[in-house]
Amino acid sequence: MNVLTTLAADNQPAGDESPEALVARLATAGRAAQRVLARLTDVRKAEALRAAAGMLRAAERDILEANAQDIAAAEAKGLTGAMLDRLRLDAGRLAGIADAVEQVAGLPDPVGEVISKSERPNGLQLSRVRIPIGLIGIIYESRPNVTADAAALCLRSGNAVLLRGGSEALQSNRAILAAMVAGLEQAGVPAAAVQLVPTQDRAAVGAMLTAAGLIDMIVPRGGKSLVARVQADARVPVLAHLDGICHTYVHASADPEMARRIALNAKLRRTGICGSMETLLLDTQFPASAQVVKALADAGCELRGDSRAQALDPRVLPAGDEDWDTEYLDAVLSVAVVDGLEAAMDHVAAHSSHHTDAIVAADPAAAERFLAEVDSAIVMVNASSQFADGAEFGLGAEIGIATGRLHARGPVALEGLTTYKWLVRGTGQERP
Amino acid sequence: MNVLTTLAADNQPAGDESPEALVARLATAGRAAQRVLARLTDVRKAEALRAAAGMLRAAERDILEANAQDIAAAEAKGLTGAMLDRLRLDAGRLAGIADAVEQVAGLPDPVGEVISKSERPNGLQLSRVRIPIGLIGIIYESRPNVTADAAALCLRSGNAVLLRGGSEALQSNRAILAAMVAGLEQAGVPAAAVQLVPTQDRAAVGAMLTAAGLIDMIVPRGGKSLVARVQADARVPVLAHLDGICHTYVHASADPEMARRIALNAKLRRTGICGSMETLLLDTQFPASAQVVKALADAGCELRGDSRAQALDPRVLPAGDEDWDTEYLDAVLSVAVVDGLEAAMDHVAAHSSHHTDAIVAADPAAAERFLAEVDSAIVMVNASSQFADGAEFGLGAEIGIATGRLHARGPVALEGLTTYKWLVRGTGQERP
C-alpha cells in the first residue's frame, strides 16, 4: 500500500495560498467532518480507531520509509542525538503506537453522558449532556507518536483534529496520518476529521493560534518555549501544561522510612517528567531530615539548600533565589527547612507551579489541612508525586496535564476533550 | 455612616503608579485575601453576604448621594436617556440590589463538592473536589447593580474579585463596594477580597486583560463592543457572552397554536434580551406558517424574509444576506422557509451564534434529532427561547450566559465560578 500520495495531494497549499487561508480551508473541512463524527455511535467510533490501528500496522513499510527520509534530512541538518531519537521510528515503536490507538478505542466514550438533570416548576425538563468540543488544534514537536496519540484521543471523544507537528517529522506524520485515515474511512469517519497542516511554513502555527471561531481549542504538546509561545500568541483557548515545580513537604509526624522512600522515588525514579519533585520541604520538627538528605545525596542527587538544609549534610550546596522557582527536570533538588505546616504551605503558595504538591504526614489533621488549603491541580498525601499521570489516575491515556485553572486541571483525558450543552424539553411553555 | 473615605484612600493609585503596577498591587492583595476566603465555611460566607446586604441598606443615603454625583457629571457630559437610566439609583433599586445579594447568600455553596472518586489497584484514593477559581476580574459598563451582583456571586463561591466598572459610575460603585466591604469585614472576610480598580484611566482595563498569573478569569459584562475588545486583547481566560442569534424552527409536526404562541413569546416578550428569537425557520410542510407570520406582523413585529416567507404575508420585507447573521435585539425578525429538519439544522449550523436554538415539534423523533445534533449552549424543544436565563434554569442567579465552548456554557452561576483539584490519599506508595 502506498498511502502517501492521496493525502499529500489533498492538503497541499494551493498555489500562493497564505497560511491563514490554508488553515481556514482545513479548519472549515474539519468542522464539517466533525458534524458527521458527532453523529456516530460509540461503537462506530471505537471500530474506526481499531481499523486505524490495523492500518498503522499494515502500513509499516511506508511509515518506516517516510521516517527514514525525515531521519536522513535531520542528520543532514545536524540534529542532536536526543532529538534524533525522539524522531526515529522502528517496527517496535510503530507497534507501540498502533497498540496505543487500540487502547484508546477501548476507553469509555464520554459523549452523551448526562451531567445533571432537573425539572422546573413550570414543567420544563432540563439536562446537561456531554458533547465534543469541536475542532481541536494540536501543536507539537518532532515526535511522530503524538500524531497518532492525539488524533486517537480527539476522535474517541467525537472531536475533529488539526495537527501541526514539528517540520522535521513531516514525512513520518504524513505517513502515519494517511494510514489512520485509510482505516477511519473504512468505518465511515470522513477523512477531514483528522488533518495535518502540510506546510513547513512556521506562519501556519500563528494562523492556527489566531483562528478563533474556526478552531475551538489548542493543545500544545512540547517544551516550555513552545507552550509559552502558544500561550502568548493564542486567541483560541489553550489547554496547556507549563511548568511542573512540584513540592514534597515532610511534616513533623511523617514516618521517617516512608519519607525517605517517597523522596527518593519522587525525585529520582525519572527526573525528566513533569511530576518529579523539584523542591523538598523538611519540617524543623521532623527528626529524620538528615537521613532523607543523606539518602538523596548517596543516590547521586545534587542538592541545593537554604542554610538550615546545608547544615544537614556537607554535600548540600547553597541555593540561590532562582532555585525555588526552577524546574530542573534532572537529578537536582532544592531543599528548604520550614517551621511547620503553615510555613510549608506559604512556600508552596509562593513557588509552586500548581501542578502537583505532596505532604508526607502520619497526622491526619495536618494531611487534611494540606489537601484543603494547597491550591494545585493535584495535591497528594503520603505518595510520590511521580504518580501525576493520566494512566496512573485510571484515565487510560492523557492528552496532557493542564496547569491552568479553567475547564480541566491535572491529567486531561477524554472528559477534558468534551464540553456540554443544556437540553430543555417543554410542552409549549411561554415565559411569563 | 460615611463609607467612602477609607476605600478611596486605600485603593487610589500611589503617586505616578502605572495602571499595570496598580492592577498588580490590587491583584496581589486580592489573591492573598482569596486564600483566607477559601478557608471560610459555607455558613461564614453566607453570613458575610447577609451582613453586606444589611450594610447596603444602612448606607442608602451615602450610596444615593454618590450616585447623584455620578448622575450630575453624566448629565453635564451629555449622556443619553437610556444610559442615564442604567446609571441611576433610587431607594427601590438599591433595595433590589441588597435583596439580590441576600438571595445569593441563600444559594448552595458549590465549593467542596466531590465531583468524582475512585480507588486505584495500588490503594491510592483519588477524588476531584470543587474549589474556587481564585481572583476573578469583572469588566462592565455603567450599571452600579453589577458591582453588587458580581461581587456577591464571586464571594459566594470563594473567589476574590477585582471590579472595573464604567467610569461614569465610579462614585456609585465606590459607595456600594464600601458598604459591602464594611459588612463583609464584620464576618471576617478581608476587605481585599472585593476591590474596585479606582482609576478612570482606560489603560487599567488593558492591564487587567494582560494580568495572566495574577487574574485567573475575566468576565466582561456589557455590550458587544466591550466583549469583543476584551476577547481580542485578553491574555487571561475570558468567560464571555458575545451574540444571541437564536433560532426557532417550526417542524411540520408542530401544533399550530403552540407554534404561534411560542413564536410570539420568543420574539416579543422582551426583544432586548439575548435569548430572544432573531430568526424563525418555518418548515415547508408546516401547514400554519401564514398564521404564525400574521400573528407576528399583527403584533407589530417587522419581518424580513426569503422569497418563500414573503409569499406568506405581504408585510414580510425582503431579507438581505446580513439579516441571517444579525442580532436585532428589537421587534425585528428574519424568517426563512426551509425544506425539512436537515435543512433547518444546516441553517442553524451556518448562522447560529450557538447561544439558544429551539424546535417546535409534536414528532418526538424530530425533536430528539434536533436536540442531539444542534450544537448550541442551550437547545430547546417546545419552549420559548426567552427561558434562556440562569434564574429560569433554577441556578438562582447568573454571572452571565457563556457562548464559548470551554469551562462553562449557557447560564453560568456559582458552579461556573469554580474549578477543581485532584486529591490523592496514599499510604506511602512509590511509583514503580
From TrEMBL, chains A, B:
Subcellular location: Cytoplasm
GO-annotated molecular function: glutamate-5-semialdehyde dehydrogenase activity; NADP binding
A GO CC term assigned to this protein in UniProt: cytoplasm
Pfam families, alphabetized: Aldedh
Main subcellular localisation: cytoplasm
Enzyme class (EC, first level): oxidoreductase
Gene3D superfamilies to which the protein is assigned, alphabetical: Aldehyde Dehydrogenase, Chain A, domain 1, Aldehyde Dehydrogenase, Chain A, domain 2
Catalyses which reaction(s): L-glutamate 5-semialdehyde + phosphate + NADP(+) = L-glutamyl 5-phosphate + NADPH + H(+)
The organism's place on the tree of life at top rank: Bacteria
Keywords (A to Z) from UniProt: Amino-acid biosynthesis, Cytoplasm, NADP, Oxidoreductase, Proline biosynthesis
UniProt function note: Catalyzes the NADPH-dependent reduction of L-glutamate 5-phosphate into L-glutamate 5-semialdehyde and phosphate. The product spontaneously undergoes cyclization to form 1-pyrroline-5-carboxylate.
Protein family: Belongs to the gamma-glutamyl phosphate reductase family.
Alphabetical list of HAMAP family matching this protein: ProA (MF_00412)
PANTHER family associated with the record: DELTA-1-PYRROLINE-5-CARBOXYLATE SYNTHASE, GLUTAMATE SEMIALDEHYDE DEHYDROGENASE
Protein name: Gamma-glutamyl phosphate reductase
